[in-house]
Amino acid sequence: xxxxxxxxxxxxxxxxxxxxxxxxxxxxxxxxxxxxxxxxxxxxxxxxxxxxxxxxxxxxxxxxxxxxxxxxxxxxxxxxxxxxxxxxxxxxxxxxxxxxxxxxxxxxxxxxxxxxxxxxxxxxxxxxxxxxxxxxxxxxxxxxxxxxxxxxxxxxxxxxxxxxxxxxxxxxxxxxxxxxxxxxxxxxxxxxxxxxxxxxxxxxxxxxxxxxxxxxxxxxxxxxxxxxxxxxxxxxxxxxxxxxxxxxxxxxxxxxxxxxxxxxxxxxxxxxxxxxxxxxxxxxxxxxxxxxxxxxxxxxxxxxxxxxxxxxxxxxxxxxxxxxxxxxxxxxxxxxxxxxxxxxxxxxxxxxxxxxxxxxxxxxxxxxxxxxxxxxxxxxxxxxxxxxxxxxxxxxxxx
Amino acid sequence: xxxxxxxxxxxxxxxxxxxxxxxxxxxxxxxxxxxxxxxxxxxxxxxxxxxxxxxxxxxxxxxxxxxxxxxxxxxxxxxxxxxxxxxxxxxxxxxxxxxxxxxxxxxxxxxxxxxxxxxxxxxxxxxxxxxxxxxxxxxxxxxxxxxxxxxxxxxxxxxxxxxxxxxxxxxxxxxxxxxxxxxxxxxxxxxxxxxxxxxxxxxxxxxxxxxxxxxxxxxxxxxxxxxxxxxxxxxxxxxxxxxxxxxxxxxxxxxxxxxxxxxxxxxxxxxxxxxxxxxxxxxxxxxxxxxxxxxxxxxxxxxxxxxxxxxxxxxxxxxxxxxxxxxxxxxxxxxxxxxxxxxxxxxxxxxxxxxxxxxxxxxxxxxxxxxxxxxxxxxxxxxxxxxxxxxxxxxxxxx
Lengths: 399, 399
Prior knowledge:
By secondary structure, chain A is α/β, with parallel strands linked by helices. Chain A has helices at 48-53, 63-68, 72-77, 81-85, 97-102, 129-139, 157-178, 197-209, 226-236, 254-262, 272-278, 310-314, 317-325, 329-355, 359-369, 375-397; strands at residues 5-11, 18-24, 27-31, 33-35, 59-61, 91-93, 107-109, 114-117, 124-127, 143-144, 186-187, 189-191, 215-217, 246-248, 267-269, 281-284, 287-290. Chain A folds into two domains: 5-270, Queuine tRNA-ribosyltransferase-like (TIM Barrel, Alpha-Beta Barrel); 277-369, no CATH class. In chain A, 51% of the residues are buried. Chains A, B: Residues 17-370 form the tRNA-guanine(15) transglycosylase-like domain.
């Protein structure tokens, strides 16, 4: 199998949606695709066999977390990430840039790279474009990302340009550094530019023309209203080459994947489906339900009629409700499987609709039916998660 | 399939060990057997398919916990415990007596039954021998136990006799009450008598001669030194009928199952294998290891060479170590599967050794090789767990 090949199987004429096939050393990916996130070399509470059964074709793992624990040299010694976590399909690793950016006052940026303190023990680490290539080579993932800078929302146009240009310089260095390591790995470029339409288009043109076989769009879904994220894509997609797969980093919810596909995105990753599942939020075609709610206490049917996931085939909603109410670990698994399966079925439906030409109808019907979590709920959730992270960082910075 | 049938397939001449077959409405059980415990209608973190794959033939569930959440009438409405928890093999439910006894100052005993306050919300509940039969009929388990009194350790001979005699009277009432419900359920008798050899023998004779198709030995493993537990069995087993299966309630560790088998026990249940797994204690043929220990950080091989459990077939000890160090939920599953598989393989080895006549050699070799947790470690663990429970009860009693 070649290291990497992207083929466009169909395009949706009225939109920018496409259906494609990506070949990697560990198997084929059909796009559009949702990639479950296995931050610490495990998709929380779900086994590799269950991911396969839910339709997963590629998963994502986090370089930042794995470089700290258990460390990339150890993973290398143990045969690489695939062997380590018992997942023989494709793996994409991010660069760690986003997490380093999230550390706030625990990190320092220079032209050379980023110095940061571990959120675990306060120990100091340095990430440079070259070092990230080395770490990802040790991890042995199929698709790797270069170190980038993710600007905060909001930020000034000057800051946005500075971060983008620095990212571009780092990406050039990453391309050079990558040559030292595994030819079977594929380095994607990252498009930045914050929320400046011109910068987004400029970044897409520049990075799109560099010899990256695929492109990730970074710096979105960082707190901005959703409409602003879509507006950025409207400037990015037309500036990108047609023949490279496009990955929308860290996005998203079911409705995001449906909309993002129409705006030309092929690959999506997000912790949201598994994170909200752990808090009781389960996807149905009408929106998210809270399985903790008393209305599920006596429901003999599945979470969603017609769903063929492992959970819905074998357990009543009442049982799943019982498990979360009694804080049983099996709940986290059953809930996560349901949501991952939902996302992957949605990706297959999107692909089928693009191939048979009905994507715009599918999108409009889905969005008419599916009630997303409100902006207010999203903001509240984000603030809660940010506060939890800030508390953790404060503890570290006192060390 | 008949509701219940016990056949002795082989006996070990120099000991009291036997290999048997139990038929139940939900399948066959080969004895000696270890029964994983699914307190709240789930064996913590393990799926029914994984229990099957680990060799489980019967599981135990707790009446006390299920009557409080989600309630036995609801489980009945939803098709019974088997459907509710998606386990189609045999299920044994205890009577709730042990848990009520554990509540200490939250419960009151009378001739009629036990009144207790829920550890969850302080609400008052009454358990009588008749009520327990009704609850277990609603749960729909295959083997059910009658309400009994589990004396504390230590207790006076007078208290021991009183509790035993009350238990006997309750068991007679349970036999009568059971007639009102499901004929396909099998009611075991419970032998009590605390730590008085004469009472133990008396209880075994009386309950053994009542029309119970099987017998559970209760009130042991409640804090006494192990030798004292075995001493009680030396008085109980000879007084029991040969043709009824014998269940040693709440026991035990690997070495307990090996020794108990030689003392005539056929069935064992205990949370220990899954509980210690959750804290990092994993079984090997040389004793328990702590997978959290730094020595596993780089081990590319499995937890135990030659183990064919799902965990050992697919994951390095280093990965399992990484999961517990990062507090990943998948750890609890992989650790529990390993220990359950260990217990069930041990049960199969015991059975094979009884059938081929080598049980005494197998026992002696196992005990020579396997280093059990010391009495001190056991006592410390127990005190920790008791303290945690006491704190919970104190909160309730203030309500």
